[in-house]
Amino acid sequence: MTEDELTARIIGNAMEVHSTLGPGLLESSYKECLFYNLMEEGFEVEKEKAMPLVFKQVKLDCGYRIDLLVNNRIVIELKSVEAINDVHIAQTLTYMKLGNFHRGLLINFNVKRLKYGIKSLVNGYEPSV
Q1: Looking at CB atoms within 10 Å, which of 6, 60, 78, 96 has the fewest?
Q2: Helices 27-40 and 3-21 meet at what angle, rounded to 10?
Q3: pLDDT tens digits, residue range 68-87?
Protein backbone atom coordinates (compact mmCIF):
# COMPACT_ATOMS: atom_id res chain seq x y z
CA MET A 1 0.00 0.00 0.00
CA THR A 2 1.39 3.41 -0.94
CA GLU A 3 1.69 6.22 1.59
CA ASP A 4 -1.10 8.09 -0.21
CA GLU A 5 -3.43 5.07 0.07
CA LEU A 6 -2.48 4.51 3.69
CA THR A 7 -3.04 8.19 4.48
CA ALA A 8 -6.47 8.09 2.82
CA ARG A 9 -7.46 5.02 4.87
CA ILE A 10 -6.30 6.68 8.10
CA ILE A 11 -8.30 9.82 7.29
CA GLY A 12 -11.36 7.70 6.50
CA ASN A 13 -11.06 6.02 9.89
CA ALA A 14 -10.62 9.38 11.62
CA MET A 15 -13.75 10.67 9.88
CA GLU A 16 -15.69 7.64 11.09
CA VAL A 17 -14.54 8.29 14.67
CA HIS A 18 -15.46 11.97 14.38
CA SER A 19 -18.88 11.32 12.85
CA THR A 20 -19.65 8.86 15.66
CA LEU A 21 -18.35 10.90 18.60
CA GLY A 22 -18.59 14.49 17.34
CA PRO A 23 -16.43 17.35 18.64
CA GLY A 24 -15.89 18.30 22.28
CA LEU A 25 -14.29 15.24 23.86
CA LEU A 26 -10.80 14.84 25.24
CA GLU A 27 -7.95 14.02 22.88
CA SER A 28 -7.45 10.69 24.67
CA SER A 29 -10.97 9.56 23.71
CA TYR A 30 -10.33 10.14 20.02
CA LYS A 31 -6.91 8.48 20.28
CA GLU A 32 -8.33 5.30 21.80
CA CYS A 33 -11.15 5.09 19.25
CA LEU A 34 -8.90 5.75 16.25
CA PHE A 35 -6.35 3.26 17.61
CA TYR A 36 -9.11 0.65 17.91
CA ASN A 37 -10.45 1.37 14.39
CA LEU A 38 -7.01 1.12 12.78
CA MET A 39 -6.16 -2.09 14.65
CA GLU A 40 -9.49 -3.60 13.55
CA GLU A 41 -8.56 -2.81 9.94
CA GLY A 42 -5.37 -4.81 10.38
CA PHE A 43 -2.86 -1.96 10.50
CA GLU A 44 0.21 -2.10 12.70
CA VAL A 45 -0.38 0.73 15.16
CA GLU A 46 1.85 1.91 18.00
CA LYS A 47 0.30 4.18 20.60
CA GLU A 48 2.36 6.71 22.57
CA LYS A 49 5.55 5.66 20.78
CA ALA A 50 8.59 7.06 22.58
CA MET A 51 10.87 9.21 20.44
CA PRO A 52 14.32 9.78 21.92
CA LEU A 53 16.28 12.92 21.17
CA VAL A 54 19.81 12.27 19.90
CA PHE A 55 22.27 14.81 21.27
CA LYS A 56 26.01 14.38 20.73
CA GLN A 57 25.38 10.81 19.58
CA VAL A 58 23.54 9.95 22.81
CA LYS A 59 19.85 8.99 22.84
CA LEU A 60 18.05 10.95 25.54
CA ASP A 61 14.52 10.23 26.68
CA CYS A 62 12.97 13.69 26.86
CA GLY A 63 9.38 12.52 27.06
CA TYR A 64 8.51 12.91 23.38
CA ARG A 65 5.67 10.55 22.41
CA ILE A 66 3.99 10.10 19.03
CA ASP A 67 0.24 9.72 19.58
CA LEU A 68 -0.07 7.02 16.91
CA LEU A 69 2.39 5.56 14.42
CA VAL A 70 0.80 3.51 11.64
CA ASN A 71 2.72 0.78 9.81
CA ASN A 72 5.94 2.39 11.05
CA ARG A 73 5.43 5.02 8.33
CA ILE A 74 2.76 7.59 9.20
CA VAL A 75 2.96 9.85 12.27
CA ILE A 76 -0.44 10.84 13.64
CA GLU A 77 -0.62 13.68 16.13
CA LEU A 78 -4.10 14.19 17.58
CA LYS A 79 -5.57 17.32 19.11
CA SER A 80 -8.89 18.45 20.51
CA VAL A 81 -8.35 22.20 20.60
CA GLU A 82 -10.12 25.35 19.44
CA ALA A 83 -7.69 25.75 16.53
CA ILE A 84 -4.49 24.20 15.25
CA ASN A 85 -1.58 26.61 15.52
CA ASP A 86 2.06 26.70 14.45
CA VAL A 87 3.24 24.98 17.65
CA HIS A 88 1.11 21.92 16.84
CA ILE A 89 2.54 21.78 13.33
CA ALA A 90 6.08 22.17 14.69
CA GLN A 91 5.44 19.35 17.17
CA THR A 92 4.37 16.98 14.39
CA LEU A 93 7.31 17.99 12.22
CA THR A 94 9.66 17.35 15.14
CA TYR A 95 8.33 13.81 15.56
CA MET A 96 8.74 13.23 11.84
CA LYS A 97 12.32 14.49 11.95
CA LEU A 98 13.30 12.54 15.09
CA GLY A 99 11.98 9.29 13.63
CA ASN A 100 12.94 9.98 10.02
CA PHE A 101 9.31 9.61 8.92
CA HIS A 102 8.24 11.24 5.67
CA ARG A 103 4.49 11.55 6.24
CA GLY A 104 2.49 12.94 9.12
CA LEU A 105 -1.10 13.83 9.92
CA LEU A 106 -2.11 16.46 12.44
CA ILE A 107 -5.78 15.91 13.24
CA ASN A 108 -7.89 18.25 15.37
CA PHE A 109 -11.16 16.55 16.37
CA ASN A 110 -12.64 19.67 17.97
CA VAL A 111 -14.17 20.95 14.74
CA LYS A 112 -17.67 20.76 13.27
CA ARG A 113 -16.44 18.99 10.09
CA LEU A 114 -13.24 16.96 10.38
CA LYS A 115 -11.98 17.92 6.93
CA TYR A 116 -11.26 21.37 8.42
CA GLY A 117 -9.19 19.83 11.22
CA ILE A 118 -6.71 17.80 9.15
CA LYS A 119 -3.21 18.94 8.20
CA SER A 120 -1.14 16.62 6.05
CA LEU A 121 2.63 16.97 6.31
CA VAL A 122 4.94 15.46 3.71
CA ASN A 123 8.74 15.28 3.96
CA GLY A 124 8.70 17.74 6.83
CA TYR A 125 6.51 20.35 5.12
CA GLU A 126 2.87 21.22 4.85
CA PRO A 127 2.11 20.86 1.13
CA SER A 128 0.33 23.79 -0.46
CA VAL A 129 -3.19 22.94 -1.59
Answers
A1: 60
A2: 130
A3: 999 999 999 999 999 999 99
